[in-house]
Amino acid sequence: MKILLLYIPRSGSTSILRYFESIRPNYEVINQPWSSLISKLNFTNTIKYKDLIVKENVFVKIDIGTFLTERINFDEVKKDFDKIIILDRKDNDKQIESLVYAKMNESFLESNKYWFNNISKEDFEESKFVIEKLKESIETIKEKLNSKVYYYEDLYFNDFSNLFNYLEIEHNEEFFKKYLSKENKYRLNDIELKQNKSLV
């Protein structure tokens, strides 16, 4: 089966990818095949679309901005992939703040715990523009690719069962706690920050 995960940045996509590759070791998992961020970290980003879709079992994760930049024919994508999902976030402000953090620390692919106490209005507005432009494309992509849209809040603070059922994967408690539990969320609130400091 071929699965495509398209996402707006800071929507929990990497954790889903890590969970999937842990319970489906027979799949080839391809994270950001055409992203310039990968090449900066000395990973290959030269895989071509035609080479990617010939793989029998593959899970591809790519952000919506990069996907649109590649200008791949929507009809081809719809035909080539068995499952296509879009991942977004309802809380725009927290999504924007998370993107600001990722830009500041160049941590787009893997993230650490973080806490915000101050960000500049300029940084916020710059990331807000990026997020809003990407969100504008979701309905078009959803319609053309007949894809399902899932939201960070519905998954991480409620239930993954609908997503798991669609992807035909099971719940594994060990890997769920490691990657998808809300206890592992990157952003710390004030109480969590105080608790962390008290342990130092």
Structural summary, described in words:
- The protein has a 5-stranded parallel β-sheet with strand order 2-3-1-4-5, sandwiched between helices.
- The protein contains 12 helices and 5 strands.
- The protein has 200 residues and is an alpha/beta fold.
- α1 (13-23) packs antiparallel against α11 and α6 packs across α7.
- Mean pLDDT is 84; it is low at 39-44 and 187-200.
- The termini are far apart.
- It has one domain (2-198): 3-Layer(aba) Sandwich (Rossmann fold), CATH 3.40.50.300.
Let me know the average pLDDT: 84
How far apart are the first and last residues' alpha carbons, in Å?
46 Å
Number of DSSP strand runs:
5
Q: Spans of 5+ residues with little confidence (pLDDT < 50)?
A: 39-44, 187-200
The helix/strand class is alpha/beta
State the major sheet. Answer: 5 strands, parallel
